[in-house]
Amino acid sequence: MSLRGHLLELRRRLFIAAAGLIVGMIIAFVISGWVIALLSEPIEQIAQQAGREYTALNFTTVSSGFDLHMRIAFAIGLLISAPVWLWQLWAFVMPGLTRKEVRYTVGFLASAIPLFVVGLYVGWLIMPHMVVIMANFVPNGQGIAQFYDYATYYDFVFKLLLVIGVSFVTPVFLVALNLAGVVSGRGILKGWRVAVIVITVFAAAATPAADVTSMLLLAGILCVLYFAAVGLSMLFDRRKAKRDAKLFRPEAS
User: What is the pTM of this model?
Assistant: First the structure.
């Protein structure tokens, strides 16, 4: 295919991906009110526990409500339309890949996408506890109000879910590096002490210091995924060693 043909193909793929995103955003916009209600539940719980009348999600401009709906619609729409734009991306690059690269890419996506979704779910479970626990540090007293700016609150939830979702995909990258021959399974295993420390520090940073349960839950899941990646990498190394032994056996004889 000529350069012009590639550009036309890319334009067509991008148009289809954008159309899928728009449809996903429309669907997400319809349910965005329900999502905002879910996001507001921890704030309502804080208001009931503290007995403060002025504890709520705060909208300071005329278009704040619409802006929050659009932010949520884009984030959820991007997730809903993922099968469409991922397929368009895959269909564009697949003709230039070898059969082995295609197999590895399919395996990577088949593992990474479910793990990312599970990470989002775990982050969603942790998020309300984080909001409630951090609110306990606000002093109680006459005239004290606790307003949550909608943009700051949304950014906090979005970044938390994104960071935890990506952290769940990290073991897949380790396996991908092993398959590419960059690092061996034993090499990954040798760094298990450093990995456990990094995971613990990450879990402590991603969760409030007072929420030990959430920290241990997140750290435990990430440790299991890390050692699962080690096991798979060592299994792949063993299979590769067997193939190499069969390949060079006739020459040795």
Answer: 0.75
